[in-house]
Amino acid sequence: MAAEILPQLPQLEALCERMYNSQNLEERAHAEQYLRVFGQSTEYIAHCKALLDNSQSPYAQLLATSSLLKVVTEHSLSIPVKLEMRNYFLSYLDSRGTQLEPYVVTSLVQLLCRMTKLCWFDDDAFHNIVDDAKTFLEKGSTGGSSGHYLLGLKILVLLVGEMNQPIVGRTLTAHRKAAVSFRDTALFGVFQLALTALRQLAAAPQPDTKLQDQSVNLALATLSFDFVGTCLDESSEDLGTIQVPSGWRPVIEDPSTLQLFLDFYAVTKPPLSNSALECLVRLASVRRSLFTSEGERAKFLNHLAAGTRDILRTQRGLAEHANYHEFCRLLGRLKTNYQLSELVGVDGYTEWIQLVADLTVSSLGSWQWAAGSVYYLLGLWSRLVSSMPYLKGDSPSLLDTYVPRINQAYITSRLDSVAAAVKGGGEDPLDNEEQVADQLDAIPFLCRFQYRATADFLLAFMDPLVAAYKEASTPGKAGPQDLEVMEGQLTWLVHLVGAIIKGRLSSSSAESQEPIDGDLAARVFGLLQICDTGVHGQRTGEHSRQRLDIALIGFFQSFRKVYVGEQVMTCSKVYARLGEKIGIDTHLVVLNIMVQKIAINLKQFSNCEDVVTHTLALFQDLATGFMSGKLLLKLDAVTFLLSHHPAEHFSFLTQRGNMRARPMFYATLARLLFMEDTPTKFHSFVAPLQQVLVQLGQASSGGANPAALRQSVPQDTVAGLFRDLRGIAIATNSRRTYGLVFDWLLPTHFPVIIAVLEAWADVPEVTTAVLKFMAEFVLNKTQRLTFDSSSPNGILLFREVSKVLVTFGSRVLASTAASDPYAQRYKGIWVCLTVLARALSGNYVNFGVFELYGDPAFKEAVSIALRMSLSIPLQDIMAYRKVSKAFFHLLEVLSHAHAPVMAATDTATFAFMLTAFDAGLRSLDTGVSSQCAAAVDNLAGFYFKATHSDGLPTQPQPHPAAQTMEGHLRARPELLPAILTTLFELVLFEDVGNQWSLSRPMLALILVNEDIYLQLQRQIIDAQPIDRRSHLTACLAKLMADVNRNLDPKNRDKFTQNLTLVRTDFRTKT
Length: 1070
Description:
- The protein is mainly α.
- Helices cover 71% and strands 0% of the residues.
């Protein structure tokens, strides 16, 4: 192979450099296309080795290693080849690793580690990787180059990372099996090597920064290992308890381990120092049961607290943002993993809590610099406060002293940040919604601690600010910048009040604090009366004004959860205080205010999608609750909404950006409407939509002139109409309510649907709205589509479905290539497939009627659906999740009740479906693979039953569709055997979550392919490594034991039991 490569080496090196370096996209694409072949087959392993041996170009070396990584991951290799490659990589690193570019070394080490993980159970030699890395370390520390020491550390760092990270395309079970074995046999040794390296570097007069970096990263990687398979992202905010194995106890309890990282932090700078802090965060998270005794755990906590106290006292390294952030995380972990009583008992607690309070106040004041770190500090204080009821003993917590100070600092800093952001032009914390939400989760616990004092402090800001805002509603009283500052500050205050009131749900002294809730809520309700008047009512286009309204909606959500509807207490002290302050004495008044605000927002904020979305979410939540929904019906405001809902009353319906909100709006209105059994009100409610439908019918001459329809009616009107209709259909959850909508639309207005599809066939915004309405309309959820036995409605509905599918499908198939195939073609097709699948599985149509009376509706619908499916390349079907789900769902439904229809298709269509099943079975989405398995089972079962009876040939004339299917299988004999082979590979060799589902079609396939089953079995065995073949042969010999040649349920169950035993036997001994 080297002889083939050497003459082309200069050209290959030039191509590699172009692929990695060229700024010309065409050049890069050409080079990538030419070089891609190196990673596509095991045949090119020798070529890659030749590149590594002979090329000095780092880009060619990188191509070789990355290609080999792809080959090793995606292809099966024999164990001798794997061992040879492993030894070659180690030898290559030893001889040339110190001269290679860092990115080449990283790629080569990653390749070595990937192979080690994949082959962990193939040969014990792969378990020696830690010893191999230790050899590099020894060579580097005994007079050799530091480069070898660095290589040894790098191997270990990437090895731990590889063992801890699932491989894309491989099962989680296989990953955990290797990870657990590595954890039990090697990980502790790696951690000890990391500690040894750190100690040696600490003793060195001038430690190498690169070695320090790899050493601390190795320690961090081992402590971040997923010890028990929780698959948490341990760099996330939600770091849980670290389940370190018991064997690590002596090292963790050893004070020198903790001190090592504290000392390392003291003498380094980021990123080394913050990595040391990350290690301390993980050590602080070690499980309680690891320690020998509570005394040992107390010593550990004392050491941690002393270390953090020293850092706080000296402020060492905290001027660096990376250090500051990790240090805040470390403080947060102390309360997460330890009780308040334990913290209070540490030496120097008084000084420690004071220093932490000073740091928190300082951080809150430095909001521009410490915005991301405040979350951990607020979380620490909120957990401390939450633990106060459980604190026993005489040791003072001192929280009474510091928490009010922190509350005041938080409130003041948030208000100051608004003016600074507006006048200085910097980043406004209010715009970071995620950070705001995180902070507001912690604030209620702090504010409800000494609640009266905090509320008074809050009201001292709020009262003058509301008064100033009221005065500013008069034109000329305040400039735009002043208004922006006031609105920003009010937004913070409303957010705070909403969060505090929501905190009542988890407060132990909630009832006694209700009057204070009432005081705060009264100010927000008072603000509500101001913000839509005068100048403020004209500022709906301003960002600061929109944020204020979103905050008000958030306050309503919080207040609703605590004091309205299902949770309401009529004797609540909140309403007594609200009645005194502002005249709101019952939850009905509050509901009326909320609905009025909802109506105002939908009228005035039509151009702001965020406000519209939050407003409709509140409306939907109010209507969904049984109690609150019933209460809403008593309100005049809701009665007004139900009778004045068209676009002339709510301008948000006219904005294209709000199209997605329309179904939610009408679903909420219809849900309220359907709470009462009033057909008259229903017809009054849909009268505006009826007018639009009549208008469409007239413009299209009853559906006969689609061209005139497109010319005379705006497309947004049509798209909006069908979104509205979908919302109403979504709200129909009973036979009664669905019947109202059905009788209104069918058959009078369905010709308009066909006309619309014809008129706007090339406009996805319209066709998708129509098709999604149809998908909802034909869905038989909660058995709402239940017609009388003498009713033709089910048949009539399906005939309309067939017309819709044929109309849309014929135009899609006739369309030319699209620049965006998903938006312009695939989306509409998958919705069509969903429509048909739902109609076929709704159990409200007797499909035999169509064939009996010569009605082509059923055949045409299935035919056009399959033709549309075939127009999408199989690769694209598998790539787009929604397309694949809809496609395979339809095929499963068809195979269940209409297998003869599938069998009777032409050979090309039949082959496409079976090839798709083969691909779908391999899908990582278990829903898709299960649907494919069920479809294959149904299809193979139909064929077997149609051609056999009790193991004997049936009558001379089997089902015509079965004869057609037989012809397909003669033309394409490889189709069913390929699927059976795939199923065997998945069930026997892979860790799949739906093993039972995948096993069900296998018996039918074996019975259908009896003539070649033994041959298939031999192919499957031969594909395995030589050392496993005899064992697999013995296992498969038991598969058909006591299994008869039929598909009776008991026989199927026996086969499944045998298959499970075969799988277990094979896997436990390999």
